[in-house]
Design goal:
3-stranded antiparallel β-sheet
């Protein structure tokens, strides 16, 4: 490194040092300590005659960095330029920030639509089609000893789960497209969420094996590695873990029975919706940290710091989350026209909550970048839903 600084010194150019591959994302304090160690080391090396002058030392992982870290790099580049170039660089930075703001707001709108769709979805209990997925779900509930639901509710639950699966897939693909990523991105984000749930909600291997035998081949999303610890209860159902991860009890729980206008209805309960909110923020982090030097989408292990940040900001917003779902039970029993009107209001409220929580989450992970971009102001801006 000392020799490299001497060569760079001969070029007479300002130097910015980028620290690649510091390890899995950790806390902002851990990263700051690593950066400080490198700053001290480089400061000592610069004492050599002819050594390059290092203007900034920044963490910037080529594979798993977040776009917010780019803002810190762009600001450092602007500061290193000659005075007559700084105005042009500032215009570029402003245009880049505006583009990122639009992508971020659009991402929050996509996730808000996912939440609103799940929150206001409902299915009549009677008259559903009894098909193979129903028999698989009944076998699953029986195998796991979860027989609390009446048999008539199983077709309605299946219909709800299939629609939720389709919406999670659609919104995940939209999130991927907004960030310009390619490859098997949607499937990998869903698998990422299933792996996160697997660590948080372990299931007994015997039950996992029994579940695999009960529903093998019945649903397209079932994975073969249930018993090996790769997934958990419901983890292979419907998009590689969406139903299990959201319901926390697979096909047997996670719905409320509601008195409808003409017949009973089923809808997702608030525990499912709360987990859906959490997985929406985790999915955003997974997408926001990929691309660039990595190329097409590749799977990775979710860092513990992400889950900690998500859980912390959601805990701080417990009252706001409760308020979001307030009155939903009454709305679900309304006619289709009234429910459509409620949907627009719920989407706007979900967008505001998601934007506020996501901005706070990113501020925990990247405090300097969050301040530079004014993420708090982005979150407070009126939502374009």
């Amino acid at each position: 490194l000392a020799s490299e600084l001497l060569v760079l010194g001969l070029l007479g150019k300002p130097v910015i040092v980028l620290l690649n591959q510091l390890g899995p994302p950790g806390s902002a304090e851990d990263e700051a300590r690593q950066v400080q160690r490198w700053q001290q080391h480089l400061h000592a090396l610069q004492a050599q005659p002819g050594s390059a002058r290092v203007l900034a030392v920044l963490p910037l992982d080529a594979f798993a960095r977040c776009w917010l870290q780019d803002s810190v790099l762009l600001r450092a580049v602007a500061a290193a330029l000659p005075a007559d170039r700084q105005a042009a660089m500032q215009r570029l930075n402003d245009a880049w920030a505006l583009r990122q703001q639009r992508i971020w707001q659009s991402s929050m709108a996509v996730l808000a639509e996912r939440l609103a769709s799940a929150a206001l979805d409902r299915e009549p209990v009677a008259g559903a089609d009894w098909r193979a997925p129903l028999r698989a779900l009944q076998s699953l509930s029986s195998a796991l000893g979860s027989s609390g639901q009446a048999p008539a509710q199983d077709p309605a639950m299946t219909a709800l789960a299939l629609r939720l699966d389709a919406e999670v897939r659609r919104s995940t693909a939209a999130l991927i497209a907004l960030h310009g990523l390619q490859g098997q991105a949607s499937a990998e984000v869903l698998a990422f969420l299933a792996r996160d749930f697997a660590r948080r909600e372990p299931v007994h291997e015997g039950r996992a094996a029994l579940m695999g035998g009960a529903v093998a081949g019945a649903l397209a999303g079932l994975k073969a590695d249930l018993a090996s610890g790769g997934l958990t209860l419901g983890g292979g159902l419907l998009a590689g873990g969406v139903l299990g991860a959201l319901g926390a009890a697979g096909a047997a729980h996670g719905v409320n029975r509601i008195r409808g206008l003409s017949q009973p209805l089923l809808a997702w309960d608030e525990k499912v919706l709360g987990n859906l909110l959490r997985t929406a923020l985790l999915a955003y982090l997974a997408v926001a940290h990929h691309g660039r030097g990595r190329g097409d989408w590749q799977a990775s292990v979710p860092p513990a710091a992400w889950g900690e940040a998500v859980d912390a900001v959601l805990a701080e917003r417990r009252d706001a989350i409760d308020e979001l779902w307030h009155g939903r039970q009454r709305w679900l029993a309304e006619d289709a026209l009234a429910l459509a009107q409620r949907r627009s209001a719920l989407m706007a409220a979900a967008h505001a909550l998601l934007a506020d929580a996501c901005a706070a989450m990113l501020a925990r992970l990247y405090p300097e970048a969050s301040t530079l971009l004014g993420l708090a102001d982005w979150a407070a801006a009126p939502a374009q839903v």
